[in-house]
Amino acid sequence: MGRYSRIAVAASLFLLPVSVFAAGYGAAGCGLGSMVIGSKPGAEQIFASTTNATLGSQTLGITFGTSNCGDHGLVKISKEREVFAQENYTSLIKEMAQGKGENLYTLASLYQCPAGSHQEFGAMVQEKFDSLVANDQTTSTELLSQLENQLTRHPKLAKSCNINLSALN
Question: Pfam families, per this entry (predicted)?
């Protein structure tokens, strides 16, 4: 290895920890270990790394954007919404008609609406139910499209919920 190559490798090793710590976790990376141990330098990072590797939390965290591994994983939030709406469609429709319910509030959370606005979210979908569910052939994808349309028009929910789909996908 040439002299300049060694210098480049040494310089990159010195810069690596800076980028790792800028991400909010230590040398062990993101995962459950980073949440439990934190970013303290030293031997603690060995335990954090072992925790991540043993439990597989780093792999899952990177995939789904959890465990201190970032805001957006490989499974995008819009896809989470689609899967949730499709899997819970029947009960979600019933709760939308009532304006309240666990599935409805979970959907509000998937739109990153604060817990304090879940009742307002419920009231809005109950009021707009006929436009959200046009007929008994309405699909979950169509429902979400109409819901996002209504959310962008709502004076309070448009500000408190994160419905900016281009920033999330």
Answer: DUF3015
